[in-house]
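Each field is set out underneath.
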Amino acid sequence: MQDQVMGMTPSAYAYPLLIKQLLNTPLSHAADQEIVYRGKHRQTYATLRERIGRLANGLSRLGTTHGTTVAVMDWDSHRYLECYFAVPMMGAVLQTVNVRLSPEEILYTINHAGAEVLLVHSDFLPVVESIRDKLETVRVFVSIDDEGGELPAHSIPFSAEYETLLTASPSEYDFPDFDENTRATTFYTTGTTGLPKGVYFSHRQLVLHTITLMAALASPEAGQRFHRGDVYMPLTPMFHVHAWGMPYVATVLGVKQVYPGRYAPDQIMRLVRDEGVTFSHCVGTILHMLLGCAEGKSVDLTRWKMVIGGGALPHGLARAALERGIDVFSGYGMSETGPLLTLAQLAPDASPRDTDEEVRLRCKTGVPVPLVDLRIVDADMDDLPHDGKACGEIVVRAPWLTQGYLKNPQASEQLWEGGYLHTQDIASIDPDGYVQITDRIKDVIKSGGEWVSSLEIESLISRHPAVAEVAVIGIKDEKWGERPAALVVLKPDAALASEDDIKRHVLTYSESGHISKYALPQIVRIVPALEKTSIGKLNKKLMREQFA
């Protein structure tokens, strides 16, 4: 009776939003398109589909069923792409293990996720060997070896080797329909406090994120786009937030995909040159590293589009990238948001922009993408004006946000307090709708009764011609509560700059009224390197501890 009221035909196909549906279009129009690994292994989309079927059959033979968690420890590769599809398409759960965590943290995440199958690259055998006796749920180990040679000495009872498993398995697998709200993936946050938290995403959420990201990247008038003529290479680890969801988008569009394996700057730049890479995404520290490597100085980068996330895009870095011809712009999201929330794409504008205006807009946090309900609120969850001045916490809703933290109901309730996901990021929104994050709640510097943005000071310092990287932290001050301290890494080929030079550089912005006097760094230290998290973000918690 209800079907008749809603006008539904009882025999109609309901079409659940499952990850397997993302393969329909590329296999129809791009079956011969290339997927490249390290410039050495090449396969087509047709082969990808065959290997997905073989992997599913192999895992099934090893006891993987609906609901089984399969953990993967690998570099960015065609194999990882196969796991992105095969594991969830079986109704199993893919755990993307952060291989850059400590062995103890890796052990915790695998046990907490309840992984029963572990696929492990030979490079990570020493880690797995060191924790094997403490793994509580893993019953099947599968080895991965690029070279196909003998594995290092170990005591791990491998049930199969990845390529051998696929070769011995048929390519046809009948991937079933099931509830689109079935969990597809699990991975763990890389925060700097406490144990990693497990976030999880359903098939429905990942499909909706893919469609939205694809639409958002197709919307600009010119540039800052991703389309079927592009060549895609991720520079964000595939263990981190599904490589920002881009491998799914690249596969739907049927573009050439290039996977670099272990990150090595010169090798990455050779792949950009030899494979014609035109679209990538990474954290700012990776872009900085690439611009400074020897191989990259002779590579034409004028066709390369680059989304920078995982932290603010400093003006100095953006300017350096634009000077090399890179179409660089910011994106914003977090592990809990799957991740995309905003993109700093340029609005259509007939009037020409100068370089300073270009840099300013590209470095903003950006405009919310379709389906994102983004607000800035005060402590009472009341909305603040969009005047570019008022600052409050970003809270969001979107259909692909994680519904909570795995096995952690208390933290889940805090995350979604008031019916919106709390990002812990402080931002303003200008009259044109551009969001600008001013700081993380835990990183904002409270000085002289004002909130001082560490990100703003970092951006100003990054404009000094001798500065390669900078981090600004708050240090305790008896008179002012806190004062900014700047840790600066200089460019190796730049003229020597002193700590006083950096102070004088920032002082000019204070004297012109651009920043408050409370934003002037009390201390500047020239350091050889900045502490970073496992995914390349600045680790300000560790910096504050070391500074103290």
